[in-house]
Amino acid sequence: MTDLLINGKKHTLDVEPEMPLLWVIRDELGLTGTKYGCGVAQCGACTVLVDGAPVRSCSFPNAAAQGKHITTIEGLSPNASHPVQVAWKDLDVPQCGYCQSGQILAAAALLKRIPKPTDKDIDEAMTNICRCGSYRRIRAGIHQAAKTGQGINSIIHMVPATAALSQGLTSQDDHLASCSGACEHDHGHEHNLQASLEHNDQPLDQLKNSRGFSSNCA
Amino acid sequence: MNTTFHASPVSDDNTQERTALHNQVQTTRRAFLVTTSASVSALSLGFHVPGFAKEEAKTSGPVEVNAWVVIHPDDRCVIRIARAEMGQGSSTGLAQLVAEELECDWKKVSLEFITPGQNLARDRVWKNMSTGGSRGIRESQEYVRQAGAAARMMLIQAAATQWGVPTTEVSVKDGVLRHDATQRTLHYGQVSAQAALLSPPDVKTIRLKNPKDWTIAGKPAKRLDTAHKVDGSLKYAIDYRAKDMLYAAVKASPVFEGKLKSFDASAILKKRGIQSVVKLDDYAIAVVADSWWRAKTALEELPIVWDEVNNGQVSSQTIAEHLKEGLTSDKNVFADTNLGQFEEAYGASAKKLEAVYSTPFVTHACMEPMNCTVLYTSERAQAWVPSQNAEAALAALADGSGLPIEKCEAYNQTLGGGFGRRGGPQDYVRFAALVAKQYPGRPVKVLWSREEDMTHDYYRPIGQCLLKAGLDEQGNLKALHVRVSGQSINAYLAPHNIVGGKDRRQLQGLWPEPGDAQFGYTVPNLKIEYAMRNTHVPVGAWRGVNTNQNSIYLESFMEEVAHASGKDSLAFRQSMLKDHPQHLRVLNAVADKAGWGRKLPSGVFQGIAQFMGYGSYTAAVAEVSVKDGKVKVHRLVLATNSGHVVNTNQVAAQVEGSVAYAFDSLQAESSVQNGRIVETNFDKYKITRMVQLPKIETVLAPTFDFWGGVGEPTICVVAPAVINAIFRATGQPVRSLPLKNSGLELV
Fold it and tell me: Is it the case that residue B711 has pLDDT exceeding 70?
């Protein structure tokens, strides 16, 4: 028998000691937020926290987790209120979402260890695979959750249909938009961007800021 | 805003039959069942009139106004979605389009996915469920907008009737109907029951909004399906659970096309939890257990003998030789474009260039491995699947279970990635049906290991390309020959698409005709050919499909030609795109926003590329440095003209996400040795990681005069832009991918 303490709850299980923690969590206990991705600790979809540290549960025998505090995505916070989860929602980080339980737990562990991570810290800690390529927003989400003021959210340049393009020989760097942290969209105050953009060759973020969008750009 | 997401059912309860609408409210489902058996004569517009049309209008519970729109008494609006959601965000975009015409309150919108069984039962009222080719929005936009508009018209009519006023005096905004003269208002939820009793309007009377007047569509709206993706509560097909469920691990012949010769089940049957060993047709085997881990562990120990059917000697080297022959052969070759006199013009050229490019097999590696759960009885088969084409999944279920399709249902879940893998063959559904048939009344979850997933994919086809260019004295390109030699997706999956021996699909992006994937350059003597050279490796659509490879061949070679002509890479392309202003415009847009030719830090070089695919025009500028073979991409500026833009935020997400697949295109390879795939997992397969991602800027240059796709067309310009920057940095063209073939590595 194995005793496991998962999300603050004790479970007594009759499983082989070598059964990876992932399969105990998913198939024995039904906590399916933790995902199977590769089985060889490469992709991180199965990331859980063991005593606060990120562990790839597909390659971690459940017996090794006895007596330790295990946190899965279901137990990270009440009502998805962890700053990483809040940032993920604000920035629409997930695409298919399958890898995101692992990404979020890896990010949460990083912020616990380094409250204000640099991009280099993020590169070193965030080795989980995302096939949809949400990496840019994951990085932005971590910066937002950590309030580093360093994050760059999506950069969108809008080119009006009628724009006279300069044959590409002029640098337009003054038009680069970068928005530190998140830009929240308040649906109640959205304007007809498309019509506006017909006459404004300005980056979207600038437009948002100039037209009453609710925004927390730092 | 309301972000409630009604996923199809994944529950512990399999005692009652469930439909994708179950999570909705039962009354909706009853209406559904009634109409399912009702006459379809009322479907003048593809919308139905509820079968209980003459009944008293219901005053409580949600009401189906038409097939796409369900309205609750409290004004919550459920918009039905037929296309698969695999991360691309089109379910939110489609809802925006419906809501735009419906004039409902966007904050009260939620999504509901229909099932293929319902679609068939209702005479395919929701039309095509297939989700691939970046078609999800562009192919459905008109009829879903019409559905939203039709529902609005019916709701207005219901209010007008109640007030006894002409419909022309009723206005609506955010789901609130108003009669200005008498200051009366009604909410959608108050009239939806009456509206549902009305005949739908004739489609010819529907006037869709000018996109310039959109207030919901065309906006950076947030996705409606995010909340359950950040707390682990979204149930993918792999997460399906049910009482008494069994688990199966599968293994197909490691050598493609190989056959199962023999196996020794007794070696594992006594192991804990093992139920049985099941032979799947003659080429795969499944171990069934009470736990997937036990099944997989036992399968690894199961002695199996395979017949390699003479494919055991095939390798990447033998395949390369086979393709090389196709570069110059006159057998099984056709010219799709043959303008002017290439040979003559090339022979007379002042300067000649010739190069051979090659691209490898690559794998999809969806994060959620292939899986399917089937519950079979002699009367009914049900499947919980991640499919890009739920109707094809349903057909595979019928095929595998041996039951008529009317007795089958497939519940498609949000997919943990698709990328083309789950759109064509529904092999994982068939496998699950075959296994579950052995256990009537018990659901069986068949899950492929990552190794099985990566070694039994439908890979991006391998290809080579011979290119020749002839320049005149002034460095103008006068003659161009493109000869693609490689494997055909159609030959493997859809032979009926090969007409008269000509498989045009493999030349995607090099086609002369406008519309979908047009070759943009004007070259007076132009020959574009395809030599089909097939292998035993299964091939299929890999996000971006043939555009990815053809763009690498063409745009990387164009850089070599530009260099040889002594002209600027941008100016050289511009001079040949004058006849194709849309191609030119997006190229100019990317050059503008990237600052083409701007002063860069020492060691950083720019590369540029343009291409067309999936009805959209794309272009890229990459800023790259190369040091000691290590390639660092610092910045990517990616421009798209998709005609219309339904959601700027989600289009940006797709453009950004495309970079991951594009980088795979640069660095990854599924190589073949001994007839099988060498790279069996992420420890061997070079997959794109976060550290490699540069700063990405999205340039949206919509012209609002067509509908193009978004999910795929960016991928094809990223790799050649990077390759061209490498060429400018090192002076050495990169002609053979992956990059390691040139001693390079993406860092």
Answer: yes
Domain coordinates in residue numbering, chain B: 5-229, 237-309+370-447, 316-362+459-746
Number of Cβ within a 10 Å radius of residue B300: 13
* Chain A contact probe: residue of B11, B90, B109, B231 with most A CBs at under 10 A: B231
Q: Are B735 and B727 in contact (CB under 8 A)?
A: no
Integer Cα distance of A148 and B217 in angstroms: 33
Q: CB distance from A96 to chain B under 8 Å? A: yes
The shortest C-alpha distance from B155 to chain A (Å) reads 23
How far is the alpha carbon of A67 from chain B, nearest alpha carbon, in Å? 23
HEC string of B348-405 equals CCCEEEEEEEEECCECCCCCCCCEEEEEECCCCEEEEECCCCHHHHHHHHHHHHCCCH
Least confident of A89-93, A157-161, B349-353, B396-400: A157-161
pLDDT score for B241:
97
pTM of the predicted model as reported, rounded to 2 decimal places: 0.91
ipTM above 0.90, yes or no: yes
Q: What is the pLDDT of residue B59?
A: 61
Domain assignments of chain A as residue spans, ordered by start: 2-75, 78-146, 153-165+172-218
- pLDDT < 70 positions in chain A: 166-218
Structure-block tokens of residue A42: 């490469």
Task: Tell me B499's DSSP state.
Answer: B
Name, in order, each residue with C-beta under 8 angstroms of B372's C-beta and a sequence gap of 6 or more: B237, B383, B384, B385, B386, B393, B428, B429, B431, B432, B433, B445, B446
Do B28 and B72 form a contact (C-beta atoms < 8 A)?
Answer: no
Domain A2-75 has CATH 3.30.470.20: no
Number of Cβ within 10 Å of residue B257's Cβ equals 16
DSSP A43-98: S-TTEEEETTEEEEGGGSBGGGGTTSEEE-GGGSSGGG-SHHHHHHHHTT--SS-T
Residue A167: closest C-alpha in chain B: B588
CA distance B631 to B745: 6
**B645-657: pLDDT as tens digits:** 999 999 999 999 9
Quick: pLDDT tens for B235-251: 999 999 999 999 999 99
For B82-139, the DSSP string reads: -S--SSS-HHHHHHHHHHHHHT--GGGEEEEE--HHHHHHTTTTT------TT-TTTT
Which residues 51-90 on chain A approach chain B with CB closer than 8 angstroms? 72-74, 76, 80, 85, 88-89
Residue written as tokens 């005593």? A51
Q: Say how far apart CA B302 and CA B287 lie, in whole Å.
A: 9
- Fold of the domain spanning B316-362+459-746: Aldehyde Oxidoreductase; domain 4 (3.30.365)
**Topology (CATH) of B237-309+370-447:** Aldehyde Oxidoreductase; domain 4 (3.30.365)
Phi, psi angle pair for B125, to nearest 5°: -60, -25
Q: Nearest chain B Cα to A20, which residue? A: B293
Pick the CATH number of A78-146 from 1.10.150.120, 3.10.129.10, 1.20.1260.10, 1.10.8.100: 1.10.150.120
Which residues on adjacent β-strands are paired with residue B385? B412
